[in-house]
Amino acid sequence: MAESQESGRIERRNGTAERPARIQAGVEETTDRPLLRAGVVLGVGLGGLVDVLVFHLVLQMHHLISGWVPPTTPEALQLNLVADGLFSMLMLAIMAVGFWMLWKTADRPDVPWSAGLYAGAVVVGMALFNLYDGTVDHYILEMHHVTQGLQPDVFDLLWLVGSVVLLVAGLLVVRVERREDGTPPAEGM
After folding, report:
1. Contact 169/126 with Cβ under 8 angstroms?
2. 141-151: per-residue pLDDT in tens?
3. If DSSP states are collapsed to H, E and C, what string results for 88-125?
4. Can you give the pTM of this predicted structure?
5. Helix (H, G, I), strand (E, B) or coil at 81
6. How far is the C-alpha of 170 from the C-alpha of 150, rounded, in Å?
7. What are the residues whose beta carbons fall under 8 Å from the beta carbon of 75, sequence distance 6 or more?
8. Pairwise CA distance, residues 112 & 114, whole Å
9. Is 60 in a helix, a strand, or coil?
10. How far is it, in rounded angstroms, from Cα 43 to Cα 99?
11. How crowded is residue 189: how many other Cβ atoms within 10 Å of its Cβ?
12. Which residues contact 2 (CB under 8 A, 6 or more apart)?
């Protein structure tokens, strides 16, 4: 049999996928992948924007390029703030792409809607941004650290641990919201 009775997954025979019985019978197949992608993209932008707003501008713990250009003079601080502003604009553009993806998904009858699934995907995107930031920006490029000058390795490590916790939380929400076959649960379940 090409389709598992319980999960509806397609089994492969001889390296080719057979069409599930529900498609052959004219039953529409659904997928939640476009909703997940839109949420992750929006989450990446939101994660970056929250980072720059909270840590760069409100708490002023660091700036985007403070590891390369220490903000010790008015000119260096101005350069750091311009970099923060350009980074904010990039994050807003990424969020706009995520909203556009969500908008395009709204017209698709094959994509079932689930606010919980979408929220979980946004959290996953935020965590992915934080993992990238903590790994690449803090350790590899040394663009900045969570705290400039105050034991940066400890706080950078805590940033990565927090990012992993955020990722696990987002993935758990996505898992709870999905059925085994990769689609959101039916209403009332």
Report:
1. no
2. 989 888 876 66
3. HHHHHHHHHHHHHHHHHHHCCCCCCCCHHHHHHHHHHH
4. 0.77
5. helix
6. 30
7. none
8. 7
9. coil
10. 10
11. 6
12. 10, 11, 13, 18, 19, 20, 21
